[in-house]
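Margin note: ligand = iron/sulfur cluster.
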Amino acid sequence: MGSGHCIVEAPGAFDLDDDGISFVVDPAAVSEDTIIDTARKCPTQAISVHRDGVRLH
Ligand code: SF4
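Resulting structure:
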């Protein structure tokens, strides 16, 4: 969908490719809470968050 919301909410963690598809750049660029909050706000629920094999969102 490429809303770009994740780029605004978690700067440095996500970017959009030339087709407007989001991809992960550096999940450590922001806090884990910010990543989870960003995932919750993704309008298409396209972001899942895992740590040590456990799904956090
Ligand atoms: S992953 Fe979600 S928040 Fe990020 S661009 Fe795609 S739809 Fe938007």
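The pocket of iron/sulfur cluster is lined by residues 1-6, 14, 22, 42-44, 46-47 (CB under 6 Å).
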